[in-house]
Structure prediction request, 424 residues.
Amino acid sequence: MPIAFDTTGFQQHDQTTWFNPTTNDQVSLNYFEQAPDLPAALDDVTELRRGLAHLTAEVGCLVEAHIVHLGGEPTLFQIVKLPLPNQPSGQAFLASFTVPRANASAVLKFQAVEQGMTGMREAALMAQVGFENWVQPHPYAPEVQGKLPFHVGDDPRWDPQFPQHPLSRARAWAHRVARTGQVDPRFAAQPAFEPAPEVGSTLATVVPGLPIGGYLPLWLDDEDVSYWRMSDPESVLGTLGQGALARTPVLENRFRDVVALDPASSTIMLANRYRDEDGGVSGPSTPLVRVPENEARAAVNAETVLEAFRWVGLASEAAADRGEYVAVEAGGVTYREKPYVLMIVKQHNGQRFSVVETSPVPDEAPIWHDQLVHEAATGQTMAGPATPETIRGGGLLAMYATTTWDLHPSRLCLSFGPNPQAIP
Prediction:
């Protein structure tokens, strides 16, 4: 095998696996006939760490990553923590040494798992450092919000207080390997590792759904929807629904915002609706974290839905200012006639009225019966003199109407179109 290391305290189970009978810790040594999928070269530590932090965030948290030398060979060392599968609590800690080559790699990995009563280290240290100081931005990628948090309790300075904790055992094993490990000269002589060259990002044009509770649905088509946690919600909410983004038609004179999604880097580009002076299309990018649908739905509650529809009210006000209407509809890339809530400012006898129209009739929403409403051929409407307050209030009327739909709030989106009665 390409890596030789000290196996003191471990019993060999097979050719590539060792166990510690006292702690149940496991060590494995594997050889792969392909280059490792690393986000950057070993000599670009900053980018390597940032990429690893993003990759690990989907399953747990990167605790630390360093470039060390095993017998003189540059090696990636990292510690990752993961939640225990199918368990309400507890974590596993993985310490690994990866020796990369152009067409192969060797990985020496240590695994230690919390057993018995879990969280003792965290509880004791949180009392020492204070709850408000516990969770910290990830030092390699501050924008990352992983499945497990980055917190001060994983710092190595606490290991002497908890020598039997699995993280402390992982570091103790790693220190011994770093001092004594050797790489087979024949493996070391293979061509050096270089990351795959950048061939350009593959961007997908997607339709954003209604942002709720810090999460954003993105539709590639009517069936293919993915869910993302926004790392910078303010930048997204300040652009989405404001008439500034590129659009796709779903009907004649009816459009939806679109953004450019790069799944590989977990970012969206908020492409401008209009070309710049050079004829190009530009816009800021913002990072996202992909999450399962159940996580995004778990963030949907009365408070976050209220906040989302207040934002819809602001989008309606911005639409009225630029001579457009806004509609809340079923998400996707295809127009569906119903259900909908249309918010528009109309002219009547020289006076402007804020009109909210919805279909089907929201029989189970009391506010639509307690106020002055009337039925039109297309649905039920509510109207009042147009002021900033009444236009924004249309967002709340839309919220009450959508509660009667057979659609989860995370399956909604906005459409826009020109208001034929708008004053030029």
Summary: The chain has a mean pLDDT of 89. The CA atoms of residues 181 and 340 lie 65 Å apart. The chain has nine helices and 23 strands. The chain has two domains: 3-188, 204-418.
